[in-house]
Design brief:
With 88 residues, this protein is mainly α. 60% of the residues lie in helices and 5% in strands.
Length: 88
Amino acid sequence: MCRNIKSLFNFDPPATDVELHDAALQFVRKLAGTTRPSKRNEAAFDKAVMAITLAARELIDSMETSQPPKNRAEEAAKARLRAAARYG
């Protein structure tokens, strides 16, 4: 899938509703093959985003782990290092 899809599970602080909505929007855009639906398909597009957002929230809230939560700043720094190594 896309390289820029990020894990939202096991972070401190937890994933926000906005982050889950943005992830769902990205997923629906990928499936639909467009960033903006036509007027005719807008309702179906928005309905899919909402359904996936709700499913993602349910998934994130129900998952369990024995690992300590990841720190967002540390993970972002690691991602920047990987990007620098990849793109120079």
